Amino acid sequence: MIHFDNVSKRYPGGHTGLSNVSLRVEAEEMVFLTGHSGAGKSTLLKLIGLLERSSGGQVHVNGRNLTRLKNRQIPYHRREVGMIFQDHRLLHDRTVFDNVALPLVVAGMGHKEVGRRVRAALDKVGLLNKEKEAPITLSGGEQQRVGIARAVVSKPPLVLADEPTGNLDPALSREIMELFSDFNRVGVTLLIATHDIDLVTRMGRRILTLSKGQLVGDNQWAA
C-alpha cells in the first residue's frame, strides 16, 4: 500500500524534513507514526497525500509511483486518500452535511448517492442528528468526527490522520481511536501520526518512530 525507498524532503533554507526514510505499510494495516515535534511526521503524511513532493527517493502508494505523477493526476490520487487534520479544516459557512459531502461533490457524484453516502458516514461517527448544524456549534470532539466522516465518505482504501486527538481529552481520544479501529476492521489502511505514546501503546498496533527526520524505530507489536 505504502512504500518509501530512501525518501528525503528538504525545504528552502536548508531545513531537512525527512532524511533517507525507507518503510512499508501493507494494505489493511493500522499503523501509528510517533516522534517529537518536528520529527517529520506531518512531512511524511504530506508526501503520501501529495500535499508536498519528495526531494529524493521513491514514494509508492497503492501501486502508484508518486515521484513520477504529473500535477494533473494529483486530484485522482487524492480521491483514494482520506486526510484528517488536528485543526479539522471545516468550512464554517456550510452545514455539517455539506462539509462531509464536499469530496463527493468535487468528484461529480449524483445528488441521491451523495445523500446516501453522507448520511451513512455521519451515522458511523454518531452525528446523523447533526447534519443540518453549523460546525461552529459543535464541540471539539464532534468537529473532529465531522472531519473523519468527510475523510471516509468516498470510501478511500487509505486514510491518513495527523494528530487527530491532539486537542481532545483522553476519553474522547479513545473513542476516536476506536472509530479508526472500526474502519480498519472493514479493510481500510490507516496511518496515524500522534505524540500520545500511552494511547497508541494500549492500542497494540505497529508503531513507526521518527527522530530528526529519520526512521529510528519500527515496533511491530507494541502492546
What does this structure look like?
Helix content is 33%, strand content 27%. The mean pLDDT is 92. The protein has a domain at 2-80 and 156-219: Rossmann fold, CATH 3.40.50. The two termini are 24 Å apart. Helix 3 crosses helix 4 (111-124) and helix 3 (96-106) runs parallel beside helix 5. The relative contact order is 0.20. Strand 4 (56-61) and strand 5 (64-65) form a beta hairpin. The protein has helices at residues 41-48, 74-78, 96-106, 111-124, 140-152, 170-185, 197-203; strands at residues 2-10, 16-25, 30-35, 56-61, 64-65, 81-85, 158-162, 189-193, 206-211, 214-219.
What's the gist of this structure?
The chain has 223 residues and is α/β, with parallel strands linked by helices. The chain has helices spanning 41-48, 74-78, 96-106, 111-124, 140-152, 170-185, 197-203, and strands at residues 2-10, 16-25, 30-35, 56-61, 64-65, 81-85, 158-162, 189-193, 206-211, 214-219.
